[in-house]
Amino acid sequence: MGSMKMGSIALLAGLIIAVAGAFGLSEPWFAWVLAVLGLVIGFLNVSGREASRFLIASIGLMLSASSVAALPYIGDSVTAVLSNVVTLLAPAVLITALQSLFQTVTD
């Protein structure tokens, strides 16, 4: 199985777990699973040419995730899902940012 396929599966699994976690799955290992999947995504899914776009989109999502709490009726649920997605994406963003910095320094 190719690395891009594994990364795509990790992303899909992470998103499903993030949504499930927002609606009742609150085990102690939950955040660790999301973080490990995020590392897999960071190492396998994001290549050099798409790193900037991934970083900008992820940072925008991370910054706006808490602001949807003000939405009536659905704000709390959407905030819980986005909080879990941020937990998933944060390690991927860290890996991608470090790879981009390393590439910039070595060029």
Plain-language structure description:
The chain has 107 residues and is mainly α. The chain is built from 4 helices and no strands. The chain is globular, with a radius of gyration of 15 Å. The model has no long low-confidence stretch (mean pLDDT 86).
Q: How widely separated are the two ends?
A: 31 Å
Number of helices: 4
Order of helices and strands: HHHH
What's the shape?
globular
| Class by SSE composition | mainly alpha
- Counting DSSP E segments of at least 2 residues, the number of strands comes to 0
Name the helicity range: over 70%
Strand content: under 5%
What composes the largest sheet? Answer: none
Radius of gyration: 15 Å
* Low-confidence residue ranges: none
What key phrases describe this protein's structure?
107 residues, mainly alpha, 76% helix
